[in-house]
Amino acid sequence: MRRFAARFASCGRRFVLPVLGAGVLLAVSALETASARIVVDSAGRRIEIPDRIERIVAAGPPASVLVYVLAPEKLVGWNRKPSPAEAAFLAPAAARLPEIGRITGRGGTANLEVILAAKPDLIVDFASIANTYVSLADRVQEQTGIPYILIDGRFDNTVAAIRMFGDIAGVRERAEQIAAYAENVLREAAHAAQAVPPDKRPRVYLARRPNGLETGGRGSINTEIIERAGGINVADAALGEGGLYDASLEQLLAWNPDTIITVDRKFFETVRTLPGWSQIEAVRRNRVFLSPALPYGWIDFPPLVNRFIGLEWLSGLFFPQDRQSDLAETAAGFYRLFYQVEIDAAAREPLLGPLR
Fold first, then answer.
1. What's the CA gap between 341 and 21, in Å, rounded?
2. Which pLDDT band holds residue 300 (cuts at 50, 70, 90)?
3. Is residue 207 helix, strand or coil?
4. N or C, which end of the chain is more exposed by having fewer CB within 10 Å?
5. Helix, strand, or coil (residue 49)
6. Strand spans (E) along the chain
7. Which residues lie closer than 8 Å to 352 by C-beta, 6 or more apart?
8. Could you tell me which of 135, 126, 158, 128 has the C-alpha nearest to residue 59?
């Protein structure tokens, strides 16, 4: 893969704050900001931040993607070190950054002394702004003296969040470029879906896990891209709104989707041999599709800006009459803009695989 050259400076959640030594706390209390400004985050918190932001810690995976896409030279480390397969689709200097753990999420692994040693100007979380997250942000900020910004991570807020982060981090021009791209994708997907009556749209099932029986109810973060693209989530009526559920084969046979989207490669490779699945219309019509997942998932994993390429893919898949370019061309443009990498012929197979 040939990459663009770039400069680099070097979902209930639980978190246990480590106890900082007295010396560390004294050092934190002695920090002074030569030039500062006040910003208001998505939770309405007034936070004093340095006038120039050069080093950023992402509190969790969604924030890591946001910072990497918009300001990779400011990211000081990863919540989880990218695998070799993932690193192949990231700019080399960023892929080599150290693992520093995650502040948010189940089993938070970040040690605050490690974060302090990284000398960040700012901590950013891009997720929920519920009271649990506000409380965590306040505690971490109090213990470290590092300003901690919460940005609303709902998909409906993504474009505004991109612009908000761009203003905070001092990367307004790039943020506007990404936001404009996202707005265009949303507009075109909505147009394609609205042109087709609901009863003519594909009836879609999201298959997770090797057995394919975990799925998401309508409105869940796992299926909202499918629904945004105009697909009718067959799991909606029986399972209600939101969240992941275990469906039964009997339910699936009753729903009889004409299209299956999966994020599990093993399921994709074995679905035609699984008992009962051959009776489902999507399997009979060979309309089972594996979502790409490098360096981040096109459907979720994490549920953030990486999903805009998923929205483009699904919109073209559901309504091919409106597709303006082939998938390889669309993906190349997205990866060039968002991840700052060029997808050459050698990279297409591990990325697009059976979609080609």
1. 42
2. confident
3. strand
4. C
5. strand
6. 36-40, 46-50, 56-58, 122-127, 148-152, 203-207, 214-216, 232-233, 244-246, 259-262, 288-290
7. 292, 327, 328, 331
8. 126
d(CA 249, CA 195): 33
In angstroms, rounded to a whole number, what is the distance separating the alpha carbons of residues 82 and 59?
Answer: 16
Q: How many helices (H) does the chain have, and how many strands (E)? A: 16, 11
DSSP state of 170: T
pLDDT on residue 8: 32
Upstream peptide bond of 302 is cis (omega within 30 degrees of 0): yes
- pLDDT tens-digit readout, 71-123: 999 999 999 999 999 999 999 999 999 999 999 876 667 788 889 999 999 99
- How many Å apart are CA 266 and CA 75, to the nearest integer? 33
pTM passes above 0.90: no
Q: CB under 8 Å to 262, separation ≥6 — which residues? A: 206, 207, 208, 212, 268, 271, 288, 289, 290, 291
Q: What is the DSSP string of 313-330?
A: HHHHHH-GGG--S-HHHH
Task: State yes or no: pLDDT of 19 exceeds 50.
Answer: no
pLDDT tens digit string along 122-155? 999 998 899 999 999 999 999 999 999 999 998 8
- What does residue 288 show for φ and ψ, rounded to 5 degrees? -115, 120
Of 74, 59, 64, nearest to 105 (Cα)? 59
Comparing 246 with 301, the larger pLDDT belongs to 246
> What does the pLDDT read at residue 347?
87
Q: Are 156 and 148 in contact (CB under 8 A)?
A: no
Encoded tokens for 124: 């950013």
CB 238 within 8 A of CB 324: no
State how far the Cα of 162 lies from the Cα of 139, in Å rounded to an integer. 25
Sign of CA dihedral 90, 263, 163, 100: negative
